[in-house]
Amino acid sequence: MDQLSALLFGSSDPSLLTSALQRFAQSIYRNPLNLILLLAIVYVAFPLVRPSSPKSSRWTPTVAEARSHLAAPSDRYTYLPPNHPDTVEWTKYTPRTLAIYDGTGTTDQDGSRILLAINRKVFDVTKGKNFYGPGGPYGNFAGRDASRGMAKQSFDLEMLTPLDKPIDKLEDLTASEVKNMKEWEGHFTGKYGIVGELIDETEA
To answer: Quick check: 103 and 132 in contact, CB under 8 A?
Structure first.
């Protein structure tokens, strides 16, 4: 009894506390159920002593505010996007019609946009006009089928098929060159997006 009183109300003898802790540890070792009960007590008691979380600063509209918004939407409470995303009109291009879009025109109709094709897919690269526009390092590909040039990592004019010839079937490319072309195709798909397909004159 004296030991229990000293443990509860304090004691100057540190050996008493050590002895009590040892007995407590031994009781858990002999009967693991005691440990389970202790964990259950801690689990139940912890939320009671834990500091409450600060009130959320998220704005929640009242019923009156919600009804008011339905009648006249405000900038504070709206699901409408600020701008409608640009739409893309899917178009089929032949080598001749694609050649118009080389970035030298002043309107969409006469070629202010810059398009090029890789593996029959047509990409709008207008936002990369410093690279693909007139005078750019890859300007030869503007308005043309760039498949062979991308495959061979060459930007020479001889990589381009004449406009009066059928689309290059690329049958003589090596596996490594085909891989190069596919990698460029994936790069353009992720960066610029596909806006159409390249077809032969006979398919138009």
So the answer is: yes
- Report pTM: 0.57
Sketch the domain layout of the chain as residue ranges: 91-198
93/122 Cα distance (integer angstroms): 8
Which CATH superfamily does the domain covering 91-198 fall into? Answer: Cytochrome b5-like heme/steroid binding domain (3.10.120.10)
pLDDT in tens, 22-69: 776 677 667 777 777 778 787 777 777 666 555 555 667 677 766 665
Closest-CA residue to 113 (of 130, 100, 122): 100
β-pairing verdict for 115-118 and 121-124: antiparallel
**Which residue intervals of 63-159 are DSSP H helices?**
63-71, 95-99, 129-132, 147-152
- Evaluate whether 204 touches 92 at the Cβ level (below 8 Å): yes
